[in-house]
Amino acid sequence: MIVVMEPKATEEQIGQVVDYIQSKGLRVNINRGEHLTVVAVLGDKTKINSTSINTFEGVREVKVIQEPYKLVSRSTKEEDTIIEFKNGVKIGGLERPVIMAGPCSVEKDYEGLLKVAKAAREMGCQFLRGGAFKPRTSPYDFQGLEEKGLEYLAQARKETGLLVVTEIMDTMDIPLVCKYADILQVGARNMQNFKMLKALGRIDKPVMIKRGPAATIREFLLAAEYVVYNGNPNVILCERGIKGIDNDFTRNTLDVAAVPIIRKYSHLPIIVDPSHGTGKRYLIEPMGKAALIAGAHGLMIEVHHDPDHASSDGAQSLSIEQFKDIAKKLNKLIGRIDYDNKNM
Ligand code: PEP
Ligand code: MN
Would the CA dihedral through 97, 91, 72, 37 be positive or negative? Predict the structure, then answer.
């Protein structure tokens, strides 16, 4: 349920509504938009009667929200969430789409990582990606450099100015990863690690949640709801493909339609990872373009200084040269997008 206040509602009137809801043992989330203030009611709605709230001074209407997700829904917050970083980079809304680039895993060769980071910087990217904790299907595969990898990322940030996106795999490691990362990435396999999502709600860094390989959009949005409900409004969604029926040609099926769907039903930024979404180098450019045209707020692309010898995901990683060539084309497309057209 949400309570939409009149544009001229006073702070006192808003306070009366909030006090009433809280007196019934429910929680509120107040959203002060440009024109209207919306009070979202969170908790067991049977404890409250919507008609009684309707009679409060300053209340325009009381709406019952049908969707199971509330805080991430556009019905609760009409304006796009735009996440701003210390260096002025922004993700979301009508901001220029961002590009996150880097290797799948951070590896022992720091110089290799730095080469990739410098190329990303040169191509105007804003973020360096790289996993220090790797979720691998087999326990015998490379598991990541852990803190050493985080240190490498921080060092590359220092040398290039790029912001760092890296994966968090365990609730226990949150303080450690927070020390180094600008965005904490929840991998597809952890999208429904609810304990970790709750804990990420209590940090003050943005969280990027990747869509689970078999997750519906509703489940994806509910994963984000966990983080926002627990106190962290800075959530980015990342479409990275879902399990399809055709493994002959692609690793996953990239759900490009998820982009406009999420933009319609949620105010959160949505970025697309065409690398994991397809598993094939040659598909990164066309699917990256498709994602941008569909309205993605950014792309995440795997790039390696020596893809044939990468510790993970070499087959879908671009070489530095390939990346530069594709980034040029993506930048050209980004430059052409009409940012004033909200229906883009
Ligand atoms: C990754 O981005 O390195 C990764 C492991 O992706 P996903 O969780 O989408 O498989
Ligand atoms: Mn990968």
Answer: negative
Looking at residue 65, what is its pLDDT? 83
Q: For residue 166, give the ligand nearest its CA.
A: 1
List the beta bridge partners of residue 235.
207
Calculate how far, in angstroms, residue 292's C-alpha sits from the geometric centre of ligand 2: 21
Task: Find out whether the beta carbon of 188 lies less than 6 Å from any atom of ligand 1.
Answer: yes
pLDDT of residue 340: 62
Nearest partner of 73 among 275, 264, 272, judged by Cα: 264
pLDDT in tens, 235-266: 999 999 999 999 899 999 999 999 999 999 99
The verdict on the CB of residue 104 being under 6 Å from ligand 1 is: yes
320 three-class SS: helix
Across residues 311-338, what is the average pLDDT? 94
Average model confidence (pLDDT) across the chain? 95
Virtual CA dihedral for 149, 152, 157, 160, nearest 10 degrees? Answer: -130
Concatenated DSSP letters of 110-122: HHHHHHHHHHHHH
Q: Name the nearest CA neighbour of 75 among 40, 51, 29, 45.
A: 40
Instruction: Report the SS3 class of residue 132.
Output: coil
Rounded Cα gap, residues 332 and 329, in angstroms: 5
Q: Which residues have a Cβ under 8 Å from the Cβ of 46 and sit 6 or more positions away? A: none
Percent of the chain clearing pLDDT 90 (strictly above): 90
